[in-house]
Amino acid sequence: MNITATNLNLFVAFDALVTHSSVSRAAQHVGITQSAMSSSLRHLRGLFDDPLFLRSSHGLVPTPRALELAVPVREALRLLECSLRPRVFDPATASRTFVLIASDYIEFVLLAPLVAQIARHAPGVRLRVLAWGLHQIPDHLARGTADLMVGFYDNVPSHHRELFLFEERYACIVRKGHPLVRGKLTLRTYAALKHVMVSQHAAATSGIDRALAELGHTREISLRVSHVLNVPTLVARTDLVAALSRRVAEPFARLLPLRIFEPPLPLRASRVGMVWHDSVHEDPAHRWLRGVVTDVCARL
Asked: What pTM, to 2 d.p., does this model score?
């Protein structure tokens, strides 16, 4: 393919069609008529010698060739957009929205001081937070639909960058007046209690299970929930026990009838970091945002 003879607006149309699965919605997003978008789709089909999108009852369905093209086209457009932006970012006068990906834990711990910091220095900057509870990097960053992911994660995929922010330690909580927990929480008692666990997968194990196994113990998971902020209320009203982040346990213990204990087994601290895509690494606005997040986390 000779790129010099190709209308680059076709790739903008292609990206919109992938995103919206509809000719009319893609046209509205790009700001052209529906007939112009249909014409772009015809040219794209000829350019790649592939139907690219097939009609279904749920809208346009991308072909394997379209799915293969989707990410590199999005990355190319993102890089082009970044190169055309002004290379100076003035937070005091800027007006834009950043999209963050975070779990409810990160929202609880980080969002209030982050919003306050941004309000003081960048009153025209807005945040939109997308929920994400998995310990993996979402493809929103590569697709350009989010600017930054903050939280717990395992492996960082290629073309992404990361920065460590802080560590989080575990605390164990039970309700006040728990019939089996008196003066202290021993390992034998902890293993014998019924547990509540935060997990996105039904069969998932955790570092707690592995630490217990090394000491010859197992535990009974009586309840699995998707959100950590549900856990303190559940524990305060039941005989369940939970191990959760200390930055969550301590504020809730001041509001609910809960007792906090040091875990009766060695547990590694969890690492919290942020991840972003290579395409925005040098962008001044994104560099500013990452600097604000880093500054706020340093004072948690």
From this structure: 0.72
